[in-house]
Amino acid sequence: MKKTRCFLALLPEAQLQRQLFDCADQLRARLPAREIRWSDAAQWHLTTAFLGNLSDEQIRSLCAAMPGRLRHCGPVSSRIRRVAQFPNPGKPKVIAALADLSPSLAAVRAQSYLPGEQAERRYSPHITLGRYRRTPHPSPFNPLPVDWQFEASELLLIASQLTPAGAVYTGLAAFPLSA
To answer: 17 φ, ψ to 5°?
Structure first.
């Protein structure tokens, strides 16, 4: 049986994309290239839930359920307050733009799960800008304070295919956030 690796996510709007791009450019100039594989800007997203490997039936079921679940969820509005090593500055896995868990983001997050399951409890909203390669002691940097607005008016179901060059994302469905 074919399975597809999937997640639900929100995409940054154009203004935030530019801010993230400028920040990533500054970090690229400061941090050793051998330590970090920078994410393509076209793949930047804020995950609301990683769903794992889904069958076609699970994908159809999720797509049928999401509009009803999201009917009371309006557009997401949140703030990004810093860009930092994540999740642990002592042993970081990524460099990420860290978002606040605003009420609108929390509402969408609460509906981001497979039918018959519940959303995971632990959640740290972020947009991954780069992933650390297997570096024993990555170069530290102080978190960058920022004050950027994150807005999203749709939630996307995205397929993720892992390749040696990195993940390849394909949009499978879009669900409007317009309560």
So the answer is: -55, -45
